[in-house]
Structure formats: C-alpha cells, structure tokens
Write a structure and sequence with these properties.
The structure is a homodimer. In chain A, the strands form two sheets. In chain A, strands 1-2-3-4-7-8-9-11 form an eight-stranded parallel beta barrel, surrounded by eight helices. A two-stranded antiparallel ribbon of chain A has the order 5-6. With about 450 residues, chain A is α/β, with parallel strands linked by helices. Chain A is globular. Chain A is built from 15 helices and eleven strands. In chain A, helix 9 (about 295-305) packs across helix 11. Chain A has one domain (about 5-270, about 385-445): TIM Barrel (Alpha-Beta Barrel), CATH 3.20.20. Chains A and B meet through helix 2, helix 3 and strand 6 of A and helix 2, helix 3 and strand 6 of B.
Chain lengths: ~450, ~450
C-alpha cells in the first residue's frame, strides 16, 4: 500500500495561489481553514499532514508579492490540530540550527501525548542569512557544520525521548510512589555543540518516540537520513531521478544495517486535478495567469540558492550561476538542469516551477494522476507521496474527492485507518527503549 | 468586577493530590482531562487558565513521590486547548533564561492567531541547576544577570510582535500585492544578550499583542513587572501582606506613568470548598493524610530555595538556613516567617504548605471562600485571584459549582463573557502599534 502525506502550505503550493478567488485571505493564519484541511485529509485516510518551516519572514525583491511572510509556527499549529482530529499523523518541521535539543525534544514529546502518538519531526538545518540574523549570527552556518550540529542534536533528542523507561510512571497511589527511580535516566551529555543533563520532563511517548523525518538531498543530508530517518521527503522531477534517489537511499540505509521498509521515501507531487483533462488544464492555466512576473522571478531567485535575479531579462535564458553556499545546492542543480534541458528563459522557468517548485507535477484527471503515482510506486521510485495541493481548500478537496477513491479502487491505498499512531499508519516498527548512553554512544561512533 | 484565573497543575495543587482516588492517573499528560478542565473554567467564565513551567524534571530526594516530573509543555498544551475552547484566556509560562526571543515571540504570536486573541505570556527567569544543566550551563545564572537578560529579551519580543503594522497584510488579489512593504519593520537589534534582525514571520496579533504576565516578587522582579506587566501573579499568605504588595506594585507602576488599572494583581488562592464546613475540612484532612513524609520534606526543600532537608528531624523546628542564591528568595522568606511565627516543626510546616505552598488558603463553604475573596478585593489586596484547585477535576468543579455562583450573586464576578479576547476580559487597553525602534529605545533607557 502507498502512503500519502498532505503537505499544507498557506494558500497552497502554487506561488500565485493566494490570488485565486477560492482561497481565503490571509490563509497562513486562518485556523478554521487548517482545521478544515486536516479533517479533509483525515476523512481521506492520509497518513499525515506535513508543515514545512522557516525561522524568518521571507525577504528580498518580490517578497511582498508572495504569501510566505505570515504563517503559523508548526508546533503550535499541529498541537491545535491534534485536538480536532483523531487518527491522522502530524509532522512538524523544526530546525536543529537555532533551537536547543531539550526544547525540541520536549515540545514534540508533548505533541505525542496530546495526539495519542501521532507526531513526526522533520529535522532540518537552516541555511540562509535571514534565519541566521534572527538568532544572533551574522552569517549562516557552513553546510558541514550545520550537519555536524544536526547529528549531535538528533542523538541528544533521541536520548531525551528515552530518558524514562516505558513503565517509569507507576503512579502507585497506595504506597505513594509516583515513579520508579530505576527507570529515570540522566544523559550527562557533553558534546561538541551541546551539554545536556536530562532527564526530559515528559514520559516516553505513546508510539515510543515521534517518527523521524528528513528531507536533505545533499551528501550529508542523505547520510544522516540513511542512518536515522524513518520517512524521507524528496523533490524528484521525473521517474528515473526518483528511482535513482530511492535506490541510493535504501542502499545507504542497508549499509547501516537497516531494512528497506524501515525507511519510507515519499517524493512530493504537485497535482492539479479535474473531472476532465480540459478542466484540469483550465485550472492550471488560471493559476499560471496569476503569476506576477516579479513573484515568478522571486521564486526562482529563492529556489536557486538565494541569488537575486530581479535585474535579469525575463525572456533570455537563465544566466549561469556560481554554486550556492546555502543548503539549496541540490535544488539549484535541479532547477539549472530543468532550465538547460528545456532551453527555458527565466520567465519560462518561473512558470515551470510556479506550482511544484521542481517536484513531480501532474495536471489531469484522477486516472491520469493515479497512473503516474502507481507507475512511480511500482517502479521503485516511491513508497508514497507528499501531496502538494495547488490551492487550499479546493486543491486538496479535488485530490481527496477524485484521486483517493481511484487509488483505493486500484487497491493502492487504505479505505480506513487500521492503526491509531503515525508509526502504525506507516508500518514502522515500535522502537524499543534504549538507555540514553546507548543513543549517545551509537551516534558518536 | 473581580478577575479569576484557573491555575492548572497536573493532579492539582496539593502535593498529595495525585494519590487521591478521584484524580486520574498520570494527570500531567492526560489531554482529555485538561480539555475537561478548560471547558469547566470557560463555562464558569474564568478570565483565563494558567500553566506554570519548569525546563527540567523534578529531582533530588523525594522527587519520586511527587507528580511534577511528567507533564505537557505549556505552549503545545495551550495551543491544543485553544482549539477546543472559544472565549477563555490561555496563559503559558516561558522562561527568558534558556530560550531565544524570536522563538518565544513567534510561538506566542502563533497561539494568538490560533485562539483569536486569547494568549498571555508569563515571563519567568529560570533559577535552578537542574534547568541550567539541560541547556549547557554548569551553574544557574546569577539573579541580577537573569533579570538583565529578561529585560532585553522582553524588549526584543515586544519589538518583534510589532514588526508588522496593523494593516500590513493587504492581500490585494487584483494587483498581486500581498503585503505593504512600508509596514514591514526590521529590528536590527544588537544588544548585550541578543542580536535579532526581524521581522517576525507572523502578522500582528488579534489583541495587538499577548497579555504580559509576570510573577517575580524580588526587587528586580517587581521593577520589571511595574514597568511592563499587565497581570501579576503573587503568593501572599495574609491580607496585610497582600495589601502591602498591591500598594507597592501599583505605586511602582505609577512611577512609570502607568494607570493603576493597566496592571492587575492576582494573588493565588488555594481553596478547599465543601457544601458545609465539615465537608470541606474532611476533604482537606483526607488530602493531608496522604502526604508521605518524604514528599512533605521534599516540598519544603524545593520551596525554601533547594536546600536538601531530607536528613533533618521531622518533629523539631525548621533549621536556620542561609539566604538562597536562587530566584526563590522571596518564597524562602515567606516560608521562614510562616515557620517562625507559627513555631512550626518541619513536619508541621510541610503540612501547612502541602496545599497552597504559602499562598492564601481557605477551607470552607462557598460563602466562606467568597467572604475572603470579597474582603481582599474590597480592601485593596487584589484585582482578582488565581485559583489553585487542590485536586482536578473535583477541586475545580467544586469552585465552579459553588463559589462562582456565590460571587456572581454578590455582583463580584461576570455572568457571561462580554468580550472575545483575554485583553477584553481583563479590561486592558488595546496596545497601539509602535515601531520596533521605539520598543528597543524605551526599554534601553
């Protein structure tokens, strides 16, 4: 069976989504809308909803034409959504670059208990100057340093999540013993980036620990994901690239002694769905027509490594750019090949990525979309997909109403939830409790 | 009219609450229970619910006999409660000692939008070694340094909350202008403790900004509260002390040019309520009988400045203790005078504070409790009270069912909510937008 995530982004994934008449104003801070989206995704039996993040407002030329500068913080948003849903997983992004591991471990553990075991943590590193500037750093941290910090951050968080045994809180009212001191484990960690004593002030979580999610595509990102991630989101423009990434990541995981099913690979898919192909095309063209040239160029500028392209001619080929020093190197390569292979001008590239930002994109009927997903799934390019609705709520509604039943008819997707936790939805094994020292030792080796 | 907060603490405020048969097991991580409590408080028209915090598990002798080591993190908990309530205010504690101002500003701003303007931030400083050890500090920060950091932290948070103008997000679909660049304000702050560029990636909040809450009783704490707090929680053992504190704080606020009604003072009240005095006494005695001596001594040890008293004889007077270097100096003085004035042994002091921890405590009928609250309110000792239920849910139910109607009959408490935001419930003025530079300048002066 295929897995499905609903990747929710403010007004939708299309850069002009906020201008569509069906999209509520100020969607990024509209809780009623998010509640509706979460319930739609849950009614369609999605494995999880997923929220990306940035620890800075969008900036630079064209920012005022994009809808990314005002939105909910993921952990507070998903905690609120936990209270109005029952089964669907809740995956929040949190950076290891500008947080403390105790705080991140604690907030996710809290979300675990609030949701009855439905939390996932998308570990990212932060890569741009705007984010650095909000946390007292003049420059962003260099790529390798970010990953060294991320690795240690992760080992501390894992150890904190296991700082109480499964049965630590005995709650023995008769004798007055609230917890078993033998199941209380300090970390006493002193590493290169962090010194953390522990224990966490939250009990071990309903699904053992939150599901570990990553999306790094670089060498360092893949290495970390292969060693530790249980779910990997990725941007793949075509099936061959998807297959290569999938095979590479599963092989890397095997080298760490991990079974292929312990790590699920889910490419993003930008899908514009219609009752007919003509209707889908119309919907897509209507959105494309709303792309202000400044917003289009702004999107390319950001996705290609934060190079300001606002001065470049729209109708000439994308200029040659030096390799970015941000964490967007893989995305830069992806967009550069898209432009080169398709001989695209800057304007054409902007329109090409205005929806899917380089991810797999499909415009068509439910059968068209299901065909592509089935093909990727059966060809070993994906264990599932992270759906990127072009607009909300309509884009998600379309997929839930048209594509999900088609996938279900084909026996590719569940008709009801069998489990209660995100781990159960994804078919991931229960993580047995390990002593904090084991987590810290393993990751240091 | 009097204001009422519901101070929710795991199993309840009595140190033995978790052993009472009516209290659900593992109450600190039971969301269904918290939802019930929030709805009870909202049905009774409380101004707010309030959640305290510590960024460490409880430790030291007797910790295993207390219920403080496993509980929800406040911002995630209150975000979830925002989704299942409509009107009641949501006040979360967050420390300035081990957080980044951008993160705190952002999570509270997010809670503001999730809740439609019902958030309050209880700014605290962290004062013990267990907390320091979880954030890479060998020792806790000295008292004055903590407050210097807190002052700068607050000015940065205020500036971030105003980093977008009230009407910044114009969302003009026709022209494609999402926000007005003229209403986007960077901070470019470089201070002693923080360097933060801004702007925040959340719009200005529904009530202008979250309500600012503080509870510091020291000289530095009072000075900060007088300058900036809109609501002050305090522990006062008797009316005379309450009057002195109230007068002092209002006078200090006046010295900053602030009107008396711009700052509300709310002492805690531990109330055990029965249909009759005998029933109230029985309830209280039943809880007192559940206090394990080790838990009682552990509580005194913690409240008196983290001195380990576990080796001291139970039935002799409290030993003389040196002045604590933690932030609990005021509480240490309060408990020392309680013991000295009442000529209490260690065991007697433990039982005396087992419920209210030195706060105003009342055991009696609804009329008895209402009499005391009315007396303090009319005598200028309080603008309202922060209710500390002995157990949950029963202790809160009793107060809501018996005392609230009595206060309403006396015309002292609202019968329905008039406003929608916490600021409206408390009768606090709308904070006009100020440029970040003004916030940063004022606080530095």
């Amino acid at each position: 069976m295929m897995h499905l995530g609903a990747f929710l982004m403010e007004s939708g994934h299309h850069v002009a989504a906020w201008r569509a008449s069906s999209v509520p104003p100020r969607a990024g801070l509209d809780f009623a809308l998010y509640r509706q989206l979460a319930r739609t995704a849950e009614a369609a039996c999605f494995d999880a909803i997923f929220v990306a993040d940035s620890v800075a407002a969008d900036e630079g030329p064209g920012a005022e034409r994009m809808s990314r500068s005002a939105r909910f913080e993921p952990l507070t948003l998903l905690s609120a959504l936990a209270a109005v849903t029952e089964r669907i997983g809740l995956i929040a992004t949190a950076t290891s670059s500008y947080n403390e591991p105790y705080t991140v471990a604690r907030q996710f553990a809290s979300l675990e208990h609030l949701s009855g075991g439905r939390a996932g943590w998308n570990l990212v590193t932060s890569d741009n100057a705007a984010e650095a500037g909000n946390f007292g750093r003049a420059e962003h941290i260099a790529h390798e340093d970010r990953y060294a910090r991320a690795r240690e951050f992760l080992q501390v968080v894992l150890a904190l999540w296991d700082s109480w045994g499964d049965d630590a809180f005995v709650n023995d009212k008769a004798t007055g013993l609230h917890h078993d001191p033998a199941q209380r484990h300090e970390l006493n960690h002193r590493g290169e980036h962090f010194a953390v004593r522990g224990p966490l002030n939250v009990a071990r979580s309903p699904q053992g620990r939150p599901v570990l999610v990553q999306a790094g595509a670089s060498e360092a990102g893949r290495a970390l994901a292969a060693a530790s991630a249980e779910l990997v989101f990725t941007a793949q423009p075509n099936r061959a690239a998807g297959q290569a990434f999938y095979a590479d990541l599963k092989a890397r995981a095997a080298a760490f002694g991990r079974a292929p099913e312990a790590l699920k690979v889910m490419p993003g898919v930008f899908a514009v769905v219609g009752e007919s192909r003509a209707e889908a095309q119309e919907k897509h063209e209507a959105l494309q027509a709303l792309v202000h040239p400044e917003a289009g160029v702004a999107l390319v500028s950001r996705m290609i490594g934060n190079f300001d392209l606002s001065g470049y001619p729209l109708d000439e080929p994308l200029p040659e750019l030096p390799e970015t020093s941000t964490g967007q190197r893989s995305r830069q390569q992806l967009l550069s090949s898209l432009a080169r292979d398709g001989q695209l001008t800057l304007r054409q590239l902007a329109l090409k990525i205005a929806g899917g930002r380089g991810h797999l994109s499909v415009v068509g009927t439910a059968a068209d979309v299901a065909d592509v997903l089935q093909d990727w799934f059966e060809a070993g390019a994906a264990d599932g997909f992270n759906l990127m609705p072009p607009t909300v709520p309509a884009g998600l509604d379309d997929f839930a109403r048209l594509v999900v039943p088609e996938l279900q008819r084909r026996g590719l997707f569940r008709q009801r939830y069998e489990g209660r936790t995100l781990r159960e939805h994804l078919g991931l094994a229960w993580p047995a409790h390990r002593l904090p020292t084991e987590h810290l030792k393993t990751a240091q080796a």
